Amino acid sequence: MKGKVVALLVAGSLAVGAGGTYAGMTMFSDDESPSLLEKAIENGTERKIGSSGSAEDFEKIEKTYELISEKYVDDVDQEKLLEGAIQGMVNTLDDPYSVYMDAKTAEQFNDTLESSFEGIGAEVTMMDGYVTIVAPFEDSPAEKAGLKPHDQIISIDGKSTKGLDLYDAVLKIRGKKGSTVKLEIKRAGVSDPLSIDVKRDEIPIETVYSDVIENNGKKIGHMKITSFSEDTASDFEKQLKELEGKGIDGLVIDVRGNPGGFLNAVQDIAQLFITKDDPIVQIEARNGEKQRFFSDTSKKKDYPIVGLIDKGSASASEILAAALKEAGGYEVVGEKSFGKGTVQQAVEMEDGSSLKLTMFKWLTPDGNWIHKKGVEPTVKEEQPAYYRANPITIEKPLTYDMTGEQVKNVQTILKGLGFNPGRDDGYYDNKTETAVRAFQNANKVKATGKVDEETASLMEQKLLEKIDSGKNDQQLQTAIEVLFGK
Amino acid sequence: MKGKVVALLVAGSLAVGAGGTYAGMTMFSDDESPSLLEKAIENGTERKIGSSGSAEDFEKIEKTYELISEKYVDDVDQEKLLEGAIQGMVNTLDDPYSVYMDAKTAEQFNDTLESSFEGIGAEVTMMDGYVTIVAPFEDSPAEKAGLKPHDQIISIDGKSTKGLDLYDAVLKIRGKKGSTVKLEIKRAGVSDPLSIDVKRDEIPIETVYSDVIENNGKKIGHMKITSFSEDTASDFEKQLKELEGKGIDGLVIDVRGNPGGFLNAVQDIAQLFITKDDPIVQIEARNGEKQRFFSDTSKKKDYPIVGLIDKGSASASEILAAALKEAGGYEVVGEKSFGKGTVQQAVEMEDGSSLKLTMFKWLTPDGNWIHKKGVEPTVKEEQPAYYRANPITIEKPLTYDMTGEQVKNVQTILKGLGFNPGRDDGYYDNKTETAVRAFQNANKVKATGKVDEETASLMEQKLLEKIDSGKNDQQLQTAIEVLFGK
Lengths: 486, 486
Prior knowledge:
Two copies of one chain form a homodimer. Chain A has 15 helices and 19 strands. Chain A has helices at 2-11, 14-22, 34-46, 55-71, 78-92, 103-114, 141-144, 166-173, 232-245, 263-270, 316-327, 405-416, 430-442, 453-468, 474-483, and strands at residues 99-101, 118-119, 122-127, 130-136, 152-156, 159-160, 180-186, 194-199, 201-202, 208-215, 218-225, 250-254, 279-284, 290-294, 305-309, 331-334, 342-348, 354-363, 379-380. In chain A, helix 10 (263-270) packs parallel to helix 11. At the A-B interface, helix 1, helix 4, helix 5, strand 17 and strand 18 of A face helix 1, helix 4, helix 5, strand 17 and strand 18 of B.
């Protein structure tokens, strides 16, 4: 009887998982394939549930509930207490990817998912107790505003995120196109929080971008996958055919900043490049049983292929990167990836609340579990330092003999723009002043040698232009070189 | 029937609360007086419990429990899940002073309490999700190692405190006398965590220190209360009689760094100085009912009295400060206090676990609730900046043209030691170099103008000597001046 209840609960889940990721849900997840799901259900019904909590155990929960309800100094929302109990159980798992949504939050989430998706366009997760940016979407408001992977969101519109769960936080960040949300950000290496305004927009759900780059007489196909959602595999296949029709000499598969998505989406893409000899990925259940997923492709593509990853590449992106590297023997260029090696399944409760629970691990073709480790690139390449520059906050103009992080940031940006001040330790010396003057002269503003708001905003603008142009994408450049064995 | 269960639970509580605070429990709390306790029990039995959670509500908790137990990717500790549910309910209160201890933790705690207390000697609380120092005890290892109020403890012996509750953290910090615990500290205004080793010691439970200070021909009694525990009121009364026997001309009651304790202890002390015309404190229950506590003293002392507080003065200390100020009309010197305006009651469960629950607010004689606000001194006085200097961390010697927080810290310390470098913004200029040389010459080490480990440790030592001498206690000095109307 109890077994049956569990099975029913699990059976109700697939839709939520699928719907969620499809419409640009701001969580990354590998929802399992139907075959595994059915396997899970089967296990559920077959297994005896013998070790459940005894009646006395639950009685203690009830007594605490009554004590708090009756005696706490303020009036207590009893519904919240019960939801807190469920949240508390999920918290003991110490797994940022197992997440509980109460009925109201789940409903709001589904509403948002059904309409077109309006927000800031960033994937977030819960890390170290903070809502944390995994990666901003390509060309999203979040990216334009300067949000970076691993940024911790400490407040939203002036309200602390402390105690908010991930879903509540996401609902506060989302909102009508054109409206603005003010985020307070804690960034590693920056002691004062950054205040960043992001103007919300409609977030497109295209997940595959492709173009042909001409380089030394070769045609390189560059395919960027921004997340693995429902249509990603078919979009990818279609665009790859187009590239092949144009006669590409090589292919770069770029999953930088890609936070993941459906397991079957990445499987469908990986099997275009991986032959049937090696598993693409292995899914391991709690009992240690492993299910290996194989391609039915018998022949490799006749052009070279390179994967491209960075520390924002998570989950399904890491499955792809590991498959390319270990099963395909391809080079993978970039930075060590995020490190998420688990698979979640959403379970809808009868009252509309929902529990997204980590049920499986995934292992690389060689059987490695990359959780909290990440996939190492075969060829390391970082973007230049100015890619990681922060927005400049000007309280009073920065001038000679000042010191601090804002000066350091300006020095990094100046160097990135070709006006190298010779130091980037945050002390505003004579050479920094000279570099600022040179920048001001080149941009036809008064050469004061001081960084006021006007100069700061000009610096930020020029830097974004330089990054957006794509001409300085050092990682992509290296990937192309590696492609042809240089 | 249900009402009776609750009443029994509450009745079992007084011993734990009392035992806990008596033996130097590292939590600050105002345990209520028996009369109020009995009142609470009475309310409990009389009130109808009509609004408890329905069976279906608890069923959802049970289902989630089963789902996680059966399906989570790793083996699940089911006991931990149930404890998590209770912890989760307590967390929804968003009250750092309501704390749940499972049976094992509660037992370990009682063990520690019964033996003599060995640890680092600091009061801690949970703030913003971090174990946070309220105040180190006087002359404790924590104070000597340089721990400060509001320091956040982010790791203990290399293990993150994330996810630890307060009690677990305290048990890890405590340990055998002579052993060392390594704390990683996040301090406001310091971007990199500080690593601080503290050698544990036996922590004395004396809570009252008194001496006579001679100043301009006057004898000033200086009574310092470090916490309000079982014997504090009688110790205070005894030592006050001794001071009065020596013919003091005035009294400074010093509760700086005092994190609180028993409500009745502070009441017994306050009524020595407050007459029966005004309430010492008002205790407010959830239903808004207030109980006022009056003194039976009819005549004020014939010498002037001044209170002395700082931002480490919390809870019972704030009751005393507010009573002195509002009911006694005395001056209170120092800094705005911590801001804790609630009263907790420990409730022991049948299985040995314990819930410390906020059940009352306390209001000042005039009816103000100072929670999260603090008590404002009537005369503001801060200690000099060097009282707040941080331990110096030397990775490589600090030299000319360097910049950063360590340089800033050294500049603050140099100024405090009388070698003013003229700036404290963290840039190591020529004048800083000159000041370092002067310090080195005065202390007979080679005048390199660089701060290496030897010079840094000498600076720290000289600074601690200066602070420990007591001669530079600016707040106490001001309190003495205020005493005689200067």
